[in-house]
Every structure is written in C-alpha cells, then in structure tokens.
Design goal:
The protein contains 8 helices and 17 strands. Helix 3 runs antiparallel to helix 6, helix 3 packs antiparallel against helix 8 and helix 6 crosses helix 7. The chain has 349 residues and is α+β, with helices and mostly antiparallel strands.
C-alpha cells in the first residue's frame, strides 16, 4: 500500500486526507468526497489481503440495501492493486461508549432500530456477521446506525462452520449481546473493546436484572432466549422477525414499569439515566472511528461457547471514545473489517 497515501484520489472523487488506523493488511482513512464536499471513510486493503474479493463483493451487495439505519456503502474499487471500500461517515457514539449509561428504554430503542435494519438486510440475504458494541452507533442526531453490515463479516471470514450455516442466528445473538452491554455496561461473553466481562452463573451470563434493578422480567427473558442463556427447555430466539417483535414488547413493558417511577441506577454506578428516549445526547459528537477486535496475536477473549474468538478489524464511523487506543488493536486487524466498528459476539448455534 506504499503507493497509496495522503492526497491519493480514488475513483476521481475521494481524496485521502488522514490515516486513522493501520496494520499490515488494512489502512483506514478519513477522506473527502470532492464531488459532494463531505467527509467519508475509506478502508484500503493491501494487495496481500486474503479476502479482498469477498470483501468487495459484500460491499457491492450491501450498497443495494436501502435502509437509513444501515451505514451506506458509497464506493468500491481497486487502486494500484489494493481494494478499497468507501462508506458514509457517521458522527456519534457507539454502544461501547454508551454501555451502562442509558436507561432501559433508550437501550431498547437503539437495539430495536438496529434489529429492524438488520432485518431489512436479511430480506436481501445479507447478514452482518461481525456485529459488536462498536458497530451499533447512536449518531449525533439521535438516530441509530449499524456499520459494517456484510462487509466486516466478509473481511474476517466466518469463525466456525456453525456461524456460516446460521448467519441470521449469529446476528440475533450478537445484537442481544449489544443490548445486554447497553443495559449493564458488561459484555456477556468475556471482556471486549473496553467492556468488562459479565459475571456468570453456571457458565452463563447472569440476568441483566441482577446488575440493574430496573430491567423488567420480559427483557430478562428476551435476552436469555437470544443469548442462549435462558431457562432449560426454553426455545432459542434466533430469527430477526421474532427479535423485533419481542423488542417492541419489551419496550412496552419498560414504559409500563417506568410510569411514575424514577430511573434506577445500574449496579455499581451512581446516579440514574433519564427517561426513555430523553437521555442527554453525548456532548462528544466528534467524528472518530473505532477499530474492532482481532484474532490471533493480541486478539480478544472468546466471545461465546459456540463461536470461539471473534475476528475482525473494522472501524466504525462515529466516535465512541475508545478505551483502548487503535494502536493496541492493530495486530491481525486486516482479518476483520472494512468500515464499521468493533465486532463482537458469538455465533448462535
């Protein structure tokens, strides 16, 4: 990638401006769309990247899915032997920065919008494959964006045959993990991306209500079914249609439980969050890209019992004030990502 640097013009309109993150196989750039005079982000894959063809193909397919909650793919191409993907720049905060800092109503709003967006993609036989707390972003205007759909999974490859065979189930489980993190500030499958691991009971993450008093039973049941940690004999939740339906039901339960009551703080935190949809938007809405986890040297802990370690080096659009600096995640990052954000979670199955 030595022949691509600051000032390089891609497709006659995207001028690379600043290198945001780099490793042996990928470089993430902040760039300028000269035609529309707007910032964009560009992931450049080295000529040696093992999955360039699959990544560019996934990006082209993702560009055809029309949902404003999905980060848009703006351009795909090859320059001097290096593949690249141009995506929408999103300013805001990712779930990892919001984890444990929003009330259940807002956490459910974010998760519901993300689930509906993923359902739209699934209708086109397109799945995320590497969804994590950095790839669900609350933009600066309060809207929700899912970054890296299809592209991150293609760049990283599937960790297990089960993940490849059941991509929708994987997305359901990963999004449930993001919701769990938003509620509790903990990650249900080990530590990841600055989030501590959730405590476990018999090898399963404890119910969210054990960590936060204002989580209603309906939400505990939803998370248990989607995370594969429900009661023995409980049917696993692994379809996006069903997830969306149950998220809406849980939102109604939360609104009912919150009526006339003050917000309850997350266990271990002081203070409480505002009412559903009314929590203050983060003051830090600067544009930042957050890298994703990697596999191999310096990789993250196992994401869950069925999926081994997550791979991926995507970067999300929208600043999430990452706990770990990008340089600490660079090793092996090429395996996982084009633009989006931290990919985390395990395959269902």
């Amino acid at each position: 990638m030595d022949r691509i640097g600051p000032g390089t013009l891609l497709a006659g309109r995207y001028r690379l401006a600043e290198q945001v993150q780099a490793d042996a196989d990928t470089v993430l750039w902040r760039a300028e769309d000269l035609t529309l005079e707007r910032p964009v982000a560009v992931r450049v894959l080295a000529p040696t990247h093992a999955r360039t063809r699959e990544t560019l193909d996934a990006a082209r397919r993702a560009a055809l899915v029309d949902d404003p909650r999905l980060q848009r793919v703006l351009g795909v191409g090859v320059e001097n032997g290096s593949g690249y993907v141009v995506v929408q720049w999103v300013a805001g905060q990712a779930a990892q920065a919001l984890a444990g800092k929003v009330d259940p109503g807002e956490a459910l709003r974010i998760a519901t919008d993300a689930a509906e967006a993923l359902r739209t993609a699934a209708a086109r036989d397109l799945h995320h494959g590497r969804l994590g707390p950095g790839q669900v972003v609350r933009a600066s205007d309060g809207t929700v964006r899912v970054t890296g759909t299809a592209v991150d999974g293609a760049a990283a490859g599937q960790a297990t045959p089960a993940a490849a065979a059941r991509p929708e189930a994987r997305d359901v489980r990963d999004l449930a993990a993001v919701l769990y993190a938003l509620l509790t500030g903990r990650w249900p499958f080990g530590s990841t991306d600055g989030l501590l691991a959730a405590p476990t009971d018999k090898g399963r993450p404890v119910p969210a209500s054990r960590l936060r008093e204002d989580v209603p039973p309906a939400l505990d049941e939803l998370l248990g079914a989607a995370l594969g940690a429900g009661r023995d004999g409980e049917q696993r939740l692994d379809r996006l249609d069903e997830l969306v339906t149950r998220l809406h039901g849980a939102r109604a339960a939360v609104r009912s439980s919150q009526a006339g009551t003050a917000p309850v703080p997350v266990a271990g935190r002081t203070g409480g969050g505002p009412a559903d949809g009314d929590d203050a938007r983060a003051e830090d809405d600067t544009d930042v890209l957050t890298p994703v986890r990697t596999d191999g040297p310096g990789g993250r802990p196992a994401a869950g019992p069925d999926d081994g370690r997550r791979t991926g080096d995507a970067a999300r659009e929208g600043r999430a004030e990452p706990t770990t600096p990008p340089s600490g995640r660079a090793a092996g990052a090429a395996a996982g990502a084009v633009l989006g954000a931290a990919a985390a979670g395990a395959a269902a199955g």
